[in-house]
Amino acid sequence: MSDNIPLQDRLHPAAPIRNCYGCGADNLRGLHLKSFLDGHEGVGKWKAEPHHCSYPGYLNGGVACTLIDCHSAWTAFALECRDKGLDLGADPEPGSGWTRAMSVEFVKATPLEAELTLRASLIKKGRTSRTIACSIYANGEECVRGEVTIVMK
Q: Which GO molecular function entries does the Swiss-Prot or TrEMBL record give (predicted)?
């Protein structure tokens, strides 16, 4: 996989996930999260807009949860595709799945104006599921951490 092209932008043009609210490249009103693999870690970058706020100046918690959910799923699927030698862009449905469970801890308020970095890693590999630990950082400080279990199809 080419390291400089976001995982979301590598998908086949007919892939249904391209319309996901959190990460879909084709969702006009979506968040457009961009994820990359860096070794065994998923790294994401995202910048909020003013309408993503909760209390003025801070990121809405639901938006943070969506980012963690999508980035965790991308990390799980990208690692799986890499391990199996699959090309995300070759098949309209290279794999699918759903979030079985997600827990989130808000460590500190996430500033709205900062570019956010998401870091995710595989912590458990089940027969049909993957559990991912994911954190959101602003200005180098951890603001939100989560754990997501993805059922792989």
A: thiolester hydrolase activity
- Domain coordinates of the chain in residue numbers? 7-152
* pLDDT tens readout for residues 57-88: 999 999 999 999 999 999 999 999 899 888 87
Sequence letter at residue 33? L
β-sheet with 97-106: strand ranges across: 34-38, 41-47, 115-125, 129-138, 141-152, 97-106
pTM beyond 0.90, yes or no = yes
Distance from chain centroid for Cα 26: 16
Half-sphere exposure of 111 (CA within 13 A, CB side): 10
DSSP-H helix ranges across 24-95 = 61-84
Question: What architecture does CATH give domain 7-152?
Answer: Roll (3.10)
Question: CB of 134 within 8 A of CB of 75?
Answer: yes
Contact 22/33 with Cβ under 8 angstroms? yes
